[in-house]
Amino acid sequence: MGNGLDLITPPGPGGVAVLRLNDSMRKETLARLGLSEVPRGTARLVRPQSGEEVLDEGLLVGCPDGSLELHVHGSPVLVQRLLDGAAGPGPVEAGKSLGALAQERVPGAPCSSGARLLLDQSEGCLHMAFEEILAGTADGLAQDLLDHWRVQRYWLQPMRIVLVGQVNAGKSTLFNLMIGEEHALTSSEAGTTRDAVQGRGHLGPWPVDWIDTAGERANAPLAVERAGQEQARQAIGGADLILRLVPEGDSDSTGSPCSPGDVPELLIPSRGDQSAAPLGHRSVDPDFFTPIDVLADPMMARETIRARVLGALDLPLKWRRGSRQAALFDEAQALALRAWRAGNSQPLLDLLHI
To answer: Which pLDDT does position 141 carry in this prediction?
Structure first.
């Protein structure tokens, strides 16, 4: 079956990616992504999905010529997830085996652990595990695969963490620390960050896409700053976690109407962009809410963020898997296993082309 989406902006990282729906598959593609039609000449804020997982928040645009375009964040991994989701799971992907699908995804793995997981599946580990599950010879294997998928999926699709907070809360300073380079502008002048800026970092074994956003303040004086705040609201919709930096002594930064209730939010007390005196060494305790000071004690700030983020997402600091071990590498496979546990074996059989 052909592709339901076509990428019409240049491939590679970018601020925005535009995908056009194939007219011949329009209805099917909208259904697979959990979307519905929009009238010509209008745009709607949408959250395209893969199964039950929300991939991003973007705009579905009804163009004047009658075509439909999906405007999303320009992450290559996200774009590929959308293209895969529009094509449909399992046999819809041109009858490819699980091993072939895994092999195709190796070059795009965001970390070495994800690449090794995919290489094992390219050699047939998951195919054999599914056969054992269907044959009833592997008690507990289905649940083990699902339990591990909850964690291991972050080796294949980095967690998205959005930094939000009032102006000068220290978001850009923390962002630069977590990705390991001076990528975002920092300044004590309010409104310096006006676009959502994305960069890749790691927390222990887990790759992370950090997103720095414009500071929240009412009545922003410039249109470009207000546009940046709107980008922040869009970025939050596709996040796994919101990190809200609250400057020390600021009691008004404990929440925002732009934070949707279905995205968990973690409050991080901060000394903002004005560093205090050096803090010295302290033990890391995820429940110890002393404000972080990125400028005076970057090592302590990094360790505090790592402990609190991994604790909030219930992820271990260390995680290893055995070689040649079966593992899921797509949400469609998790959905098929859940269907099997509910008494419906057909999705699992479809994945094996039986």
So the answer is: 94
DSSP alpha helix (H) spans, the chain: 26-32, 76-87, 98-105, 112-122, 125-135, 141-156, 171-179, 223-237, 298-312, 331-341, 346-351
- Cβ contact 154:206 at 8 Å: yes
Could you give the C-alpha distances from 84 to 99, 330, 334, in angstroms and in order?
16, 10, 15
- Please write the tens of the pLDDT for every residue from 176-187: 999 985 544 444
Q: How many CB atoms lie within 10 A of CB 54?
A: 18
Percent share of the chain, pLDDT over 90: 36
Neighbour-count burial for 261-294, b at 16+ CB within 10 Å, e otherwise: eebebbbbbbbbbeeeeebeeeeeeeeeeebbbb
Burial class (CB in 10 A: 0-12, 13-18, 19+), 343: exposed
Task: State the sign of the Cα–Cα–Cα–Cα dihedral 284, 285, 286, 289.
Answer: negative
CA distance 182 to 175: 9
pLDDT digits (tens, 9 = 90+) for 3-46: 688 899 888 777 889 999 988 788 888 888 888 888 888 888 88
Tokens representing residue 269 in the block = 């007390």
125 Cβ contact partners less than 8 Å away, ≥ 6 residues apart: 324, 325, 326, 327
Q: What is the pLDDT of residue 333?
A: 93
CA separation (Å) from 111 to 22, 37, 117, 207, 242?
A: 32, 37, 10, 7, 23
Q: How many whole angstroms separate alpha carbon 341 and alpha carbon 345?
A: 8
- String of DSSP letters for 85-140: HHH-SGGGTTT--HHHHHHHHGGG-SSHHHHHHHHHHHTTHHHHHHHHHHHT--TT
Burial environment of residue 57 by CB neighbours within 10 A (0 to 12, 13 to 18, 19 or more): buried
Instruction: Please give the model's pTM, rounded to 2 decimal places.
Output: 0.62
Per DSSP, 35 falls in state -
Of 86-95, 104-113, 238-247, 275-284, which gets the smallest average pLDDT? 275-284
Mean pLDDT for the stretch of residues 129-148: 92
